Amino acid sequence: MRPRWRKVLSDLIDNKARTLLVVLSIAVGVFAIGVIAGAYVIISDDMSISYAANNPANIELRMDDFDEDFLNTIRKFDGIKEAEARRVFNIRARPLGETQWTSIDVVTIEDFEENEVNLLTPVSGKEVPLKNEILLEQDVLEKMDAAPGDTLEIQLRDNSIKTVYVAGVVQDSSTGAVDFLAPPLAYISTDTLRLFDQTELFNRIYATVETGQDDDNHISVVLSALKEKIEKNDYEVGRTFRSLTHQHPLETTINAVLGILMALGVLIVFLSSSLIANTLNALLNQHLRHIGVMKLIGGRDKIIFKMYLVLLVAFGFLALLIAVPAGGQGAYGLAQFIATKMGFSLLGYRIVPIALIIQIAVGLLVPLVAGFVPVINGSRVTVQKAISGDLAGESSEQAEGGANRESRFEAIQFEATRILADRGIRIKRPLLISLRNTFRRRGRLILTLFTLTMGGATFISVFNVRVTLHEYVESVGNYFLADVTLDFDTPYRVNEIEQFAMQDPRVTYVEGWTFSGADILSIDGTTADNVSILAPPAESVLVEPLMVSGRWVQAGDEKKLTISEGIFDLYPDLQAGDYLPLKVNGKEESWEVVGIFKFINMEGILGYAPYEYISRDQNMANLSFSYRIVTEQHDRAYQEMMAEDLDAYFRDHGFHVQEATPGLATLDSAAESLDILISFLLIMALLTAVVGSMGLAGTMSMNVLERTREIGIMRAIGATDTRIITMVLVEGLLIGVISFILGIFLAVPFTYGLSWIVSTAIFETPIAVVFTPMGYAIWAGLVIVLSTLASVLPARSAARLTIREVLAYE
Amino acid sequence: MTQKNINPLIELRDVVKNYQSEAGVFPALKNVNLNIERGEFLGIIGKSGAGKSTLLNMFTGVDGLTSGEVIVHANGESVSLHSLSENDLALWRGRTMGVIYQSFQLLPMLTLAQNVMMPMDMSDLYHPRKSRERALELLDMVELSEHAHKLPSLISGGQQQRVAIARALANDPPVIVADEPTGSLDSITADHIFKLFEQLVQSGRTIIMVTHDKGLMPRFSRHVEIVDGELFDNDSFPMKGKARMGEDRK
Ligand SMILES: Nc1ncnc2c1ncn2[C@@H]1O[C@H](COP(=O)(O)OP(=O)(O)OP(=O)(O)O)[C@@H](O)[C@H]1O
Ligand SMILES: [Mg+2]
Hints:
The structure holds two protein chains of two kinds.
Chain A: H1 3-13, H2 16-53, E1 59-66, H3 68-75, E2 80-95, E3 102-109, E4 121-125, E5 133-137, H4 140-143, E6 151-155, E7 161-171, E8 185-189, E9 202-209, H5 216-232, E10 237-242, H6 251-285, H7 288-296, H8 301-342, H9 353-380, H10 383-387, H11 395-422, H12 429-438, H13 442-476, E11 484-493, H14 494-502, E12 507-521, E13 527-535, E14 547-550, E15 560-564, E16 579-584, E17 587-597, E18 605-608, H15 611-617, E19 623-631, H16 636-652, E20 657-662, H17 665-706, H18 708-716, H19 721-762, H20 773-800, H21 803-808
Parallel strand pairs in A: 3-8, 5-7, 13-18, 15-17
Antiparallel strand pairs in A: 1-9, 1-10, 2-3, 2-6, 2-9, 4-7, 5-8, 6-7, 11-19, 11-20, 12-13, 12-16, 12-19, 14-17, 15-18, 16-17
Chain B: H1 2-6, E1 10-21, E2 24-36, E3 41-46, H2 52-60, E4 67-74, E5 77-80, H3 86-96, E6 97-100, H4 112-123, H5 128-141, H6 157-168, E7 175-179, H7 187-202, E8 206-211, E9 222-227, E10 230-232, H8 236-249
Parallel strand pairs in B: 3-8, 3-9, 6-7, 7-8
Antiparallel strand pairs in B: 1-2, 1-4, 4-5, 9-10
Helix pairs in contact in B: 4-5, 4-6, 5-6
The complex binds adenosine-5'-triphosphate and magnesium ion.
The site of magnesium ion (MG) has 3 residues of chain B, from helix 2.
């Protein structure tokens, strides 16, 4: 082997610990990038493909009961490709022997074998339920403990109890997805309808369109026409939903996750680049003398560059060997985690070419770019300087005009020490040495602080954003202030329910609400969207809205409503006082928008109008299906108990209770999807913190390595192990503390940025940012632990050096 | 080719070297003029801090100068060192000059043989296989062939300096420049190294050597003294004759 290559090989393998440090510092970043890029691609590909694979309905109609003949006319309707009928009704179920009821929507499917729309993916057990058997959607298992073969108790409206067998568990990514707040689903065949006292008629249509399955406008046109036709046949249509074949309904949330992943990826590229630059810079500074010797004996730049090119590529290649397979596994793991949380399945493990390319690019290019700066600097240093020895360390920075700054810094330090000494505060000599050492390599210190501070600021921001999101959801909870919501199958007089409820001394307040729905018409008169109109009494104390503009509903309002911000998607310029074209109960009307309020847009467009008007309009004055009840205490457990007690109480008195829900239940499901996001943010925070402390560990070991001779001299003049270890530890801690202080400030813009990304993705509206001391406190503790850990190994290896080794050191 | 006989090997013309430091400008070489002929064994003698190393760095082009010119007529071309780029200079130096320092400057990760092969590898003057043979020959010449495959840290200082000499000879350069090559060696070892230099001069090479040891004076074919950056070329006349004789032998 030619001596030049022999040298490169020796540089690579002689000092294994140092090579490992360099390789790992490259590998950490490349791994993280692989995980993120891979997960990003796998999720965005598989989400739509696996969702589309179940042939989701483009149109869902909830309507009056209809029969097979009617379904056939729908099937023949222009623009409709497939249409299937279902009967969906609500029951309560519990495993035999349990006490806790779970509300379930039962979906009746005519023919499981011929099923073509909203396909079910088998999870376990049978795929087709026989008579008196039931299939459970896997979400049910989150609420109750059941498995194929178990028996469930079912409670019907008249309080009678029936039993069914669990035949299997399935995943249904389509049916439940459009209605986020709906209870979990279960499936039966028409044979079982009789058991549940249900007629053999249908009440929902699930249809796909012939063309334009991913064109919301087209679907909307077909839907309007279809709805018109159905209404002409004297059937009443309730809510309608549209969805695109290739768009997962939770896409906005998932996109928020992906957006964060992307931001994280970019951040990690920066952090790991600066980590790589730092490590290589330190390593190559030690090579200055070698470069000098080679130039002395005739080495041209070309040869020397080529040698270092090979060395750097070798570092990158070794890092790729570790990071590529690990990153691929990590990417699939992360994608799997997100997919399970979001309810879709992946298409299987695979290598993502683009992730691989990015990894290779980063793994090879970043070390090259980062490494060539010191190599070029080294080749610029004159042979004289390179060889005269003492330069290897500081003088490369001094050569860039650092000499003056250094002395100014020393002057400041001297002055500070003197001032402190005047006040009787003496800084101990070893501490002074650590202090000096910390600031000796300014370039390296800046890069180290950069990585660690970015990590810290991200960490702190995640906690702030978490609180920000929860605070917002809580404020949205102001729309759901009741402790128990009691829904009946038939309307009852408000007075009557109030009287009954107040018999329970724990009930303090009752309100009867009603609901309505309307189509929002676009300017050309076609249906653009639905609005669910909630109608609490005008004087309701159970809604505390977050108004964006205008006012809340008032008792005298007629054909007036307040509407959620989601309306801006359809009418971006809408203002309070404007009129909105609606179709209410089949009649086109123009309603005044008196106010606009903030709400989670994921739930669709929501409106409020006073009970007084809506109930009169529905010929149900003083009657109501739905009641909001306030109890003595407001914690979750109490609400659950009250929901159960009130449910039993009203059933016992012959009321047809549909469901009693504890007040925070709706909030919980909103918070649930936020928690997925938050766990990502935490992963993100930890990753950046790890990269940051890797950077610190690298810096500390480089520092120790470079100061081997110095440490040897300190030893020779009697420094103990403890003193040397303390010196290194204090330096590491000092860097940690400085980065913490910087992180406090950097966390402010980070928090705003991150919460903007997340809130606009999920809520489609920026939300008020909240800060919490928790992130700061945890990071303060963590940074101390991390920087101690990062310095402990270098410190120990420093203490282990013998004088002989040090003096033999080149 | 004719130039070769007319011109001296190295010409220093009005060379001034000032060091810039915080304390101000320090004149290390004050208008130095010096011609070096082929075949000379030139001693540069002076006290510590006199500017010996600074002067030597002018011959090798290892450090820049403030004003003046250094011209080397070797290998059939005349080169003004400080007009070359670092890069061209490195290649030129590798082929024309063997440089030896007091502190050996061997690459610690390479064996003695590889260290000696390195200049040949850098200058591409020899085929790799040929360069290996040559390296072993040179190590044999400095009586180190049995250690050829050891690392520098495993041999003594005197042995390391002999490796450095072997390395300096690797490309068969016409000029050898040595800065206190015996400075960190005991007197017996130093004498050994000195004898090696005398052999090289006899075989026709030009050697420029820096030392603070006045006792070595008689052993040079010529010497100059440097005091505070100024050159005193006391006995250049009698020396010139000897230098010519050396050249004739070739
Ligand atoms: N980089 C530098 N910056 C400033 N002054 C320098 C520098 N290098 C050398 N000097 C000064 O120039 C003068 C000559 O230095 P030089 O190294 O040539 O001396 P020397 O004769 O080789 O001494 P020694 O025998 O100790 O090696 C000295 O006074 C030295 O302090
Ligand atoms: Mg000197």
